[in-house]
Amino acid sequence: MLAVNFLLLAAVLFCIGVFGVIARRNAVMVLMSIELILNAVNLNLVAFALMNNNQEGQVFALYVIAIAAAEVGVGLAMVLMIYRNRKSIALDELSEMKG
Amino acid sequence: MLAAEETYKSLELSSGWFMENAWLIALIPAVAFVLIIAFGKKMPFKGAEFGLASIGASLVIATGAGIQWMQRTDSADHGGEAAQGMASGVRGALRAAEGAEAKPFIDPVVSQWVWWQNSGLEFGIGSHIDGLSILLLWLVAFISFLVQIFSLDYVRGDRRYTHFFAALTLFSSGMLVMVMASNMVQLILGWEIMGLCSFMLIGHWWEDSYNSHSALKAFFTVRVGDVGLLIGTAILFFGSNQWAVDNLGTNGFDIRAIQAWALSGDGSSWTLLMASVALFIAAIGKSGQFPFHTWLPDAMAGPTPVSSLLHSSTMVVAGVFLVARIYPVFWEGFNIANGGLSFIAIIGGITIIIAALLAFVQDDIKKVLAYSTVSQLGYMMLGLGTGAWLPAVFHVFTHAFFKCCLFLAAGSISHSGSHHSFDMKKDMGGLRKFMPITFGAWCVSTLALTGVIPFAGFWSKDEIIDNVGDAGYTFLFWVGLFGAALTAMYMTRATYLTFFGDPRGAAAGIHHDADHGYATEHRETLVTAATIDRELVTVGAAPKSLGAAAAHGDDHGDDHGDDHGDHGDHGDHGPHESGKLILIPIVILAVLALTSGFANPTPLAGDALGLNLGEGVELIKEYVEPRAEAVSLDIAAGHAGESVQLLEPGFVPNEAAGFVPNEAAGFVPAAGDKKAGCGRSTPEVGTVCYFPAVSHAVPTLSKILLSLGVVAIGYAAAIGFCIAFYKNKHPKLVGLTERSRIARGGYLFLKNKYYLDALYQNVFVYFVSRPLAKATYWFNQNVLDAAVDGVGAGGKRAGEFVYKNIDQKLVDGAVNASGTIASETGHGLQPIQSGRVNHYASLLFGAAAVGAIVLVILNVS
Amino acid sequence: METLTDQNFLLTLGTFLPLVGVLVMMLWPKDDESGVKSVGIATAGATLLVGIYTLTQFDYSQSEKLQFAVDAEWIEVIRSGYTIGLDGISLPLYFLSMCVTFLVMIYTWDNMPDAGNPKAFYILMLVLQTGMAGTFISQDLILFFVFFEVVLLPMYFMIGVWGGEDRQYASLKFFLYTMFGSAFMLVAFLALFFQTGGESFGFAYLIEMGAGVDRDVQIWIFAGFFIAFVVKLPGFPFHTWLPDAHTQAPTQGSVILAAILLKLGTYGFVRIAIPMLPEGAKAWAPAIAILAVIGIIYGALGCLAQTDMKRLIAFSSVAHMGYVMLGISTLTEFGINAALFGMVAHGLITGMLFFIAGSVKHRFHTLEISRLGGMLIQMPKMGWILGFASMASLGLPGLAGFWGEFPAILSAYQPGFGLNEVLFRVCMVIAAIGTVLAAAYLLWLYQRTAFGQPPAEFSGGAAHSLSAGAGEHAGDDHDSDIEDVRPTEWMAWTPFLIAIVVFGVYPQLMFKVMDPAVTQMVETLGKSLG
Fold this sequence. Notes:
The complex is a heterotrimer of chains A (99), B (861) and C (530). Chain A contains three helices and no strands. Chain A is mainly α and 99 residues long. Chain A has a domain at 26-89. Chain B is mainly alpha-helical and 861 residues long. Chain B folds into two domains: 2-509 and 532-540 and 573-623, no CATH class; 756-860, no CATH class. In chain B, a hairpin with a 2-residue loop joins strand 2 and strand 3. In chain B, helix 6 packs antiparallel against helix 13 (304-313) and helix 20 packs antiparallel against helix 22 (474-499). The N and C termini of chain B lie far apart (104 Å). Residues 1-10, 80-101, 513-524, 533-557, 559-572 and 636-675 of chain B have low confidence and may be disordered. Chain C is mainly alpha-helical and 530 residues long. Chain C has one domain (9-457, 483-529). Helices cover 71% and strands 3% of the residues of chain C. A two-stranded antiparallel sheet of chain C has the order 1-2. In chain C, helix 2 runs antiparallel to helix 3, helix 11 packs antiparallel against helix 12 and helix 12 packs across helix 16. At the B-C interface, strand 2, helix 7, helix 8, helix 9 and helix 32 of B face helix 6, helix 11, helix 13, helix 16 and helix 17 of C.
C-alpha cells in the first residue's frame, strides 16, 4: 500500500522526465528532465530500502544524488559552451554528429 | 663324469719362445710394408731390402717355431720327456702302426689379444700354432723369400719397383696372418688382404687395360666366392657360439671352438651342411675351382714372380687351407666319414679334368702352368673331399715347390730366352741349348708335377689318388688317374714346344717389337672357326701374323713397360742363361721338387721299390696331422684372454675309452673299427675332439705300378704326338681341326674355355652392369624421383589452385565480404544516427522499454 | 638411467663454442678473407680441443651411463628441459662431428667454392657444427628437434648458394624433403609425449614409460619416426634427394652431409625410436630390413649406372646406409654395434671419397668418369688415396668399412626377439651379395679413373706412350698444371686416412666404447619384449 504510492509517484515522475527528454527542444529543460528521471529512481531506491529494512538502497540513492550533481554540472557547462558558440540551445539545431 | 676324469691325465708339453711369439712372423712383413711405402724410394735398393729382411726374419722365426713344434710333439709322445733338439726329435719319433697305438692330441699353442668386442663377447686376434699352420707358415715364408730374391733381378728397372716389393711383402703378411689365424675373422682379414694384393700385383702394369681388366676380374671373381665366406662364418658363429661359450669359454669365431663344436654332435647336420657349402664356395673362388677357375689364367697378366708366388704356390691354396683348417665342419657337413657324396670331391674331380684339358690348347707357357695349377688344386680338393686330409696338405707342400719352380723357370725363359714373350709357339723352341740350368730345373719340376717316382709329386699326388680309391670313391679314383695321364701329356707338349725343336721368333733372335702392342680388347672375345689358330701354320714357321696376335686379347708380356734398351744385362738380345739371382731360387726349388717328397714318403712304396727309408719317416703325418683323440673339457677350456695363454693339454690314453657309441646309429664299436673315434661317433660327455679320425690308405705295389704306368702311358703318347705333329708334321694330324668337324668343335670348345668366360662376362656381368643397372637408375630417375618431383609439382599446382580458387575467391572473398557487409549495414543504419539528442533518447528509452517488457515476460512465464 | 655429472660444463661448451666464433666473425670485416678463415678455423680448432679434452675425461669403464650430464629447466611450460649427456653411443659421433668440421674448414682454406664469400661460408659451417653436436648430446626430444632443425638451414644455404649449376632445385629438394620428415617426427614426438602421460620430454623418462604404450599406438608412432629418420638416412625409397644434394653441394657440404648429417637418421633410430617404442620397433623391423637390403642392391646398381663420379659416390651412400639399417633392424647388440661402427666408418670413408671428388673437380672441372683416366699417372698420390678409399669403402678387412659391414651381415643371421629368421637370413644373403656389387662399382670406378692413360684433353698434348714412362717413379712426368695433393689437402685428409686404418686394424677402440651402452639398451629392450 505504502510502497504502491511511492512507486506510482516514481513512475509518474519518470514518465514526465522521459517526455521532457524526448519532447523538449531546450537543452536546459532536457537536463532538468534527466534530473526528474534520476530522482524517480532515487525514490524507488529509498522506498524499497524502507520496505526491506536495509540501508544499501539509501546509500545508493545518495550516490545517485552525488553523481546527478556532477552530471548536471558537466551538462550545464556543455550547454553554456554550446550557447556561447551558437547563441542557441535548441537541440534540434545540433545535428553535426549525424552519421 | 668321474670315470672320464680318471681316464685323463694332464700332460706336460714343451713350448717355446718361437711358438708363443709366432705372431711376429706376420707382423714383421706388415711393418716392412709400411716402411717400404714410407721410405722405400729413398733406400739404396728401393725398398727391396725391407722386404727381403722382413721375410727372412719371418722365415727364421717360422723355422724356429717349426722345430719347437716338433719338440712339443715329441715331448707329448714321450710322456713329457723334453726332446733335445731337432735331430733327436726327428729320429726319436716312432712311427705308430695304423690305429695300433694312440698318440695324444697335441694342443695348439694359441696366443691372442682382444681385437674387438660385441654383445659383451670379446673376440681375439693372435696366432694359432699347430702342425698345419707351422707347415704353411714356413712354406709361405720360404717361397716368398725365394721369389723376392728372384724378383730383385727380374723386375729390376721396373717403373714401380718399390711398389712391387711393397705389395709382395704385404701379400706375405696377409697370407701369414691367414695361416696362423686363431679365429674366422682373422682368417677373413688375411684372406681379403691377399685378394687386395692379388689385385694390385696382377694389375701391376695397369697402363694396359688388359692387365687392369684381369686384375678386376680376379678380385671380382674371388669376391663372389667371398659371399660364401661371410655367410659360412655367420652360420658357424651363430651355430657354435653358445656351445663354445658354455664348454670352452671362447666364442663362435674361434677355430678350435668351431672344430670341436662340429665334432661334438651338438650342431644340426643341416647347419653344418649349409656352412660347408657356403665356405666351400669361398674356397672355390679363391682356389680357382670349377666353375670359378676362370680368373686364374687371366691372373697371369701379372709379372711372373707374382704368378709363381700368389697364383700357383701360396695364395691359391688358401681355399684348400680353409677346408683343411676347419676340416671337422666339412667332415660332418658333407658326411665324409660315411663316404657321403662329397661336394668338395666332385668339384675337385671336375676341376682336375677340365683344367687339364684346357692346358692343351694354350700357347702361353704361363697359362699352361696356370691351368696345371688349377688342376692340381683340384687334386687337393679331391683329397680333402674324400677324407684324405694328410695327402692333400702334403700336396700343398710339394706342389708349392715344383710349381713355383716351373713358373720361375718360365720367367727365366721370358727374361733371357724369349725376349719378354710367353708365347711358346712364336717365341720359343730349342731353348735347352741356351738355358741348360733352367731346362734342368724345368725337367725336374715337370717330373715332380707328373708324379714320377721319386720326385715330390709322386709321394703326394699318388697318395691322394690312392686314398680316394681306398675310401671307396672308385670313379673319382679313375678320374684322378686320368688326370695324372693328362698332366703328363700337356707338360710334355709344353716342354717340347719350349725346349726342343728349332728356335722360333725371339728365341731365334727375331725381334718384333710390334708384338708388344698392348691389347685393349677386353670384352671376352670368342674364337670362331674362321680364326682358328691353325696349329701348323704358326708352329715351326716364322711368325707371320704378328699384328693379329696383338688384337687377340690375351697376348701380353712381362716387358716392364720400359725401354728395351735399358736392359743392360742382355744387350745381345739372343737367348742366354739368366743371371745368378734368378737361377739360385730356381735351383733351390728344383732340389726341393726332387727331395721334398721324402718329408712324408709312404714306407711301403719305398720298400716295394727297394728303397729302404727306415721307420719314422712320415714327418708330415707325425707332426702335421692333428691326432684324432678326445681331450678332456676340464683341461681344454681356455679363455680368450689377454696375452699369451697356454692351455694345459690332456689326452685319452685309450681310444675306445674316449667314446660312447652313437646308439642312435645302432652300432657297437669294436676294437679297430673305423666307425669309432673322433668324427665317427659323439665324443664322451666332458670331452671334445678337434680332428676327425681320418683313415689312411695302405699303399700296395699294384696301385703304385698302376699309377706309374698311367703316367708312363701319358708320357709316351704325348712324346709320340709331339714328334709326329710338331717335328715330322704328320699329314694325318696336321690340319685335323680343319678337316674334322668333331676335332674342330672340341678345339673351339677348349679354346673358348668352355664358354664360361663368355657366360660370366657377356651374360652375368654385362647384364648386371648394363641393363639391370640402367633399369634401376631409370627406375630411380623416372619413377621414384619423378614421384618426388611429381609431388613437388603437384604441390605447386595444388598451391596455385588453392591460391586462385580458394584463397582468392573463398577465404579472401569471405574477408572482403565481411567488410562489405559491415559497410552496407552501416549505411543501412545511417538514418538512425541522426545526430539529435532527442532522437537518441527516444531510441534509448524505447529499447529499454522493449528490454523491460522482454524481462517481464520472461520472469512472468 | 644412472648419470655422471662431473664436469658437466664440457658438453655445453663444446656445443656452443662455435657460436662464439660466429659472433666474432660477424664483427670481422668481410674483406679480410684470410682473417675470417683464421677465426673460423681457430674456433673449430678450439672446439676440437674441447672435444679431445672430453675424450680424455670420459670414463670408459662406465660408457653405458650418461656422462657430463646436465638436467636444467628450459621451457617449463611444455615440460621440456635442457637435458644433455654423452654415452658410448653418442661419443664417437659427437667427436666425429667436431673433427670433420675442423678438417673441412682447413680444406676450405684454398678450396673455396666459386661463389666466394668465405665469411658467410665459415659462419654457416660453425652453425652447422653447433647443430650437429647438439643433436648428439640432446637427451630431450624438444631439444633434439631444435638441433635437428638447426642443422637443416645452414646446409640449405650451403647447397643453394655455393652449389653447382642445379643448386636451386637440389637445395630446395633437400630442404623440403627433410622438412617433410621432420613434420612426421614432430607429430610422433607429441603423440609419444601425450601417450606417456605428458610428463616430460626427457629421453630417460620416455624410455621408461614408452614401453607401456599400447602396441598399436606404438606402431603408429613408430611410423612417424620411421619416415622422419629414413628420409634423413636416406633409405630406399626416400633417398632421391641425396644424389641431387650431393652432386650439387660444394665439396665441403658433401663431406659434412655424408659424414655427419646422414648419421642423424640412424642415430635417431638407435637413440629414440627403438628404445622408446620396443613393440613398434619389433613390428617395423622386418620392413626396415627389407628396405635396407633393397637399398643395398638398389644403391649398388644405381652406382653402376652412373657416369658422374660424385653421383656414384652419393649412390654408394644409399648402399652403405643399407648395411647400417640392416644392423639396426636385427634389434640385437651385434647388429646395432655394427650399425654404429658402420656410421662412423661410412662417415670417414665416404667423406674421404667426396674430398677426392671435390679435388678432382677442382683440377679437371669435370667429374664425368668417361673423361677422366690415368689419374695414377698424372696425380699418383691422389690416385693411391682414391684406391685406398675405394678399398675401404668396399669393406676390405683391416680398414674401417669392414667392421660396419661384416658384423651387420652376420647379425642378420640371428635377429633378436623372435623376429622372422628366414626373412632375415634371406636378407643376409642378399646383403652379402651386395658386397660383390660394391666391389664391382668401386673397382670399376677406380679402373676407369685411375688406371690407363690420361685422356688427351687433360694431358696437355704431351704423348704418354708407355715407353716414355720409364724411370723409377711412376708418373713423375705429370703435367705441371695438374698438381698432385696439396699441403692443405694433406692436412685435411691425413687424419681421415689414419682413422680409417686405425679403426680398421684395431676396431676394439670403438667397440669398447659402444658395446656396453648398446648392450644395456638391448637389455632394456628385452625387458619389455620378453
